[in-house]
């Protein structure tokens, strides 16, 4: 029965994600699900809640959400879930977003797993690819070595600014390794973090970074 609900949800969200740019498309969801299942193998959590939260975590992302649209709520209400399950899923999703460092802390095991799974997809080789895919979709510069990364900002400032893609590494991506909440997430983040540092060093060598 639970698998039927997951399949029903998947069919609905896949159509939505196929309209997003490559940084938040259906492949992103597939990778986050894979990460979540790897972490779940070592953590105690409700698998059903984790899987539905992964599927739904970006459908109402402010970067893509249309005015007066609430796809997350609509899809949840269309699934045969208890009120408790709906609330748990919404609570997990609420803790996923970074929001310029102003995100809601993950407190439940399910929230920690989904948050780590999503953030793992924001770092490493795939994180680099996604950063430039999103930057390209928004018309941002690849890099600007004179641009200073912000260390403090409100969620609104974070969303409204248009820094270069490389500056985004310093404002978010390089911070994620130390924000992992599960032991598996922490271990998986190490190699990905080091790869980003190597990439940035090489990029500076090949451009005018002078470092």
UniProtKB/TrEMBL annotation:
The lineage of its organism: Bacteria, Bacillati, Bacillota, Bacilli, Bacillales. InterPro entries: HD/PDEase_dom, HD_domain. GO terms for molecular function: hydrolase activity. Keywords: Hydrolase. It comes from the Bacteria. Residues 25-123 form the HD domain. The keyword rRNA-binding does not apply. The keyword Nucleotide-binding does not apply. This is Phosphohydrolase.
């Amino acid at each position: 029965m639970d698998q039927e609900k997951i399949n029903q949800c998947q069919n609905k969200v896949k159509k939505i994600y196929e309209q997003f740019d490559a940084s938040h498309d259906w492949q992103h969801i597939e990778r986050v699900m894979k990460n979540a299942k790897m972490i779940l193998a070592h953590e105690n959590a409700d698998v059903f809640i984790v899987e539905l939260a992964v599927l739904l975590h970006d459908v109402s992302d402010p970067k893509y959400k249309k005015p007066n649209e609430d796809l997350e709520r609509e899809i949840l209400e269309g699934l045969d879930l208890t009120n408790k399950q709906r609330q748990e899923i919404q609570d997990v999703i609420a803790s996923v977003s970074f929001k310029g460092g102003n995100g809601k802390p993950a407190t439940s095991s399910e929230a920690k797993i989904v948050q780590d799974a999503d953030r793992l997809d924001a770092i490493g080789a795939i994180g680099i690819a996604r950063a430039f895919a999103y930057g390209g979709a928004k018309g941002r510069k690849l890099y600007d070595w004179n641009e200073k990364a912000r260390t403090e900002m409100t969620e609104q400032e974070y969303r409204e600014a248009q820094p270069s893609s490389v500056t985004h590494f310093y404002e978010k991506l390089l911070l994620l390794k130390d924000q992992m909440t599960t032991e598996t997430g922490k271990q998986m983040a190490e190699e990905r973090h080091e790869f980003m540092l190597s990439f940035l060093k090489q990029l500076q060598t090949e451009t005018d970074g002078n470092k």
